[in-house]
From TrEMBL, chain A:
It comes from the Bacteria. It comes from Alteromonas profundi. The lineage of its organism: Bacteria, Pseudomonadati, Pseudomonadota, Gammaproteobacteria, Alteromonadales. InterPro entries: MksE (IPR053841). This is DUF4194 domain-containing protein.
UniProtKB/TrEMBL annotation, chain B:
It comes from the Bacteria. It comes from Alteromonas profundi. This is Phosphoenolpyruvate carboxylase. Keywords: Pyruvate.
Length: 211, 406
């Protein structure tokens, strides 16, 4: 039998993001400073350290020192992320616009697939957008009908850890902490590259552009 | 109270009961569909002050008093008006208290009792309206302004609510308990109403309102955060539309990799089976038993076999390589046949200077002889040279054997 510490440690070593949605017990465990400090030596042994994102609500393991091998892994990861950004952003906006409340998808949000599907089916613009999103390499859908496209997109997002499906029998998905991490990354890119994305969006809205 | 008033009240309530569906329709829709009801009924309700017509062209609406009654009793979310006019209520309280004291002073007890009941009514009304306002605020916060859909509208609603809270708080400042206690003087009943009861309500409302204010600010922050996120996403798409070849710099190559992009790869791989572990034997048995696809695959193989032709010619070319020892024995037999003379196995062994172990050689010769078919065996004679065991009878040691033709 593994202790709770062991479970959390193995989850971290698997490269998982631990948040309240995906793994509440581990999240609670890590929320306690004492527990986190007990884990630290184990992680350090494997050149890892505990890191948090989204204002301390999401935990993951990061490298302690970065050598050539680690840099290679990180570069690969970063390239994957950078190429996935557009499909993910388009998907986030689609879900936001198609949901009645027009609220951005945040950690813990429930997305009801059936409701979403109904809205998208009723709005040709959304259906077109979904088709475009599902064709990206990241999702790789070849389906011609909307149902298949939507299911494939959600399946891939669950595999990648952006969504979790608490009840396998129900088509209800919860956004995980990885979504928060995604926002943080976009914000970081925005600041580092001085893109002033918010201002661009603001200007476009005030000019009454297509957005 | 006069009998007439009671009768009129009963009549009004009866009218409300009789036309409840009409009233509820008006409450839900805002107006009455006049063509659906008889003019007489509408006229009667208008006279009773249940319905009214704001101006000549507009449709009949519910009187706000009836609407407030329904909203209060049904705990309806749509009730968003807040009566913040505490100053006026306080002023009327003071006036009534003065009336009461004057009546008492002149020993007009009937009048005093009437003033007292009026005053009580007013104080409780004020308390109720205070607690009602706070309740409305809380219900709005609890469903996060669910009655409007867009984030912008929520932000506006939040700002309105904040304004109302500020108003309420500034109205609460109108309470001057020193003045009230002065007015109440030494009168026990007045003191109870004006000081004790009001003060309790006041402190409770003030406390709750400060909680409301904090929560409202919190919510406003969240809504702003939502808007910020939306702008970020839209801005990113816009940017990518304008500069499709934009790629962010490779942050993993920086000397100080930002923690956001420093995510480790998985190091844990599944463990392997340890068949020597006795503890796990039972679990392994279970696993193997549940591996149904192995049996299936076997059946599959058999099906394949049936459809194949077996190539017989291949097999005929297969030849067995003989052991060198066996070949040597065959040569020995041939040698005896060729020469026609008996010869011992060991002398042949020395003649050909064979390299096998002597004992093995003798065994192989005996074996070779025994292996011959009965017909062939008749041509040969095999004599064993040796001696009996000195101690135990029945044991014969073979030193050599002679093979000859019969």
């Amino acid at each position: 039998m593994m202790t709770e510490q062991g479970f959390v440690l193995s989850a971290l070593l698997q490269g998982a993001f631990i948040c309240q949605v995906t793994n509440e017990e581990a999240w609670r465990f890590l929320k306690s400073n004492d527990n986190a400090q007990q884990l630290e030596p184990h992680l350090n042994l494997l050149n890892r350290t505990l890191s948090t994102t989204a204002e301390g609500e999401v935990f993951f393991a990061s490298y302690l020192t970065i050598g050539e091998a680690e840099r290679k892994v990180l570069t690969q990861q970063f390239q994957d992320t950078a190429s996935n950004l557009i499909p993910l952003v388009e998907w986030l906006l689609l879900v936001q616009q198609a949901s009645e409340s027009d609220m951005p998808v945040t950690m813990g949000n429930a997305i009801r697939l059936n409701e979403l599907q109904t809205t998208i089916e009723d709005t040709p613009a959304y259906a077109e957008q979904l088709e475009k999103i599902s064709r990206y390499k990241m999702f790789g859908s070849t389906s011609v009908n909307l149902d298949g496209q939507l299911k494939q997109v959600f399946k891939r997002l669950t595999e990648l850890g952006y969504l979790s499906k608490p009840n396998p029998d129900k088509q209800i998905y919860l956004a995980t902490g990885k979504v928060e991490h995604l926002y943080e990354m976009i914000r970081f890119i925005d600041e580092t590259e001085a893109l002033s994305l918010s201002e661009q969006a603001e200007a476009a809205i005030s000019q009454g552009s297509l957005l | 109270m006069s009998q007439v008033l009671i009768q009129a009240g009963t009549k009004l309530l009866n009218a409300l009961g009789r036309h409840s569906d009409l009233i509820m329709q008006a409450y839900v829709n805002g107006t009455v569909k006049e063509q659906d009801y008889s003019a007489k009924v509408l006229e009667q309700l208008t006279q009773l002050g249940v319905l009214w017509r704001p101006d000549a062209q507009s449709e009949l609406r519910l009187k706000s008093a009836v609407r407030t009654l329904l909203e209060g009793s049904l705990q309806d979310e749509r009730n968003r008006t807040i009566n913040a006019n505490i100053g006026a209520s306080l002023a009327s309280l003071k006036t009534l208290a003065e009336h009461y004291k004057e009546a008492l002073y002149h020993n007009k007890f009937n009048e005093a009792a009437a003033h007292m009941s009026d005053l009580t009514e007013h104080v409780y009304q004020l308390s109720e309206s205070l607690s009602n306002s706070v309740r409305i605020m809380f219900s709005r916060i609890n469903n996060e302004f669910g009655y409007v859909s867009s984030v912008d509208a929520k932000i506006r609603e939040n700002e309105l609510a904040q304004g109302q809270v500020t108003d309420l708080l500034s109205q609460l400042e109108c309470f001057r308990f020193d003045e009230l206690s002065e007015i109440a003087g030494s009168n026990r009943e007045l003191r109870h109403l004006l000081v004790v009861s009001l003060q309790q309500r006041f402190s409770k409302a003030a406390q709750e309102l400060s909680v409301v204010q904090a929560r409202l600010l919190d919510l406003l922050g969240r809504f702003r955060e939502f808007k910020g996120r939306t702008r970020l996403l839209k801005g990113y798409l816009l940017h990518m539309e304008q500069q499709p070849d934009f790629t962010p710099g490779n942050y993993a190559n920086l000397t100080q990799v930002p923690v956001l992009f420093n995510q480790t790869a998985s190091v844990i791989k599944p463990a392997s089976v340890d068949v020597n572990s006795v503890e796990h034997e039972e679990a392994y048995h279970g696993m193997v038993a549940s591996l149904s696809h192995i049996h299936k695959r076997h059946q599959h193989d058999h099906e394949d076999d049936k459809q194949q032709d077996i190539d017989m010619t291949e097999q005929s070319t297969v030849s067995l390589e003989k052991d060198p020892l066996q070949l040597a024995v065959e040569d020995y037999f041939c040698d005896v046949i060729d020469s026609g003379q008996p010869k011992t196995a060991l002398s042949y062994y020395q003649e050909k200077s064979l390299t096998f172990d002597q004992e093995v050689w003798i065994y192989q010769v005996i074996g070779g002889y025994q292996a011959l078919a009965d017909q062939e065996k008749q041509f040969f004679a095999l004599d064993a040279h040796g001696k009996n065991d000195p101690t135990y009878t029945g044991n014969f040691y073979i030193n050599d054997i002679t093979l000859g033709l019969r």
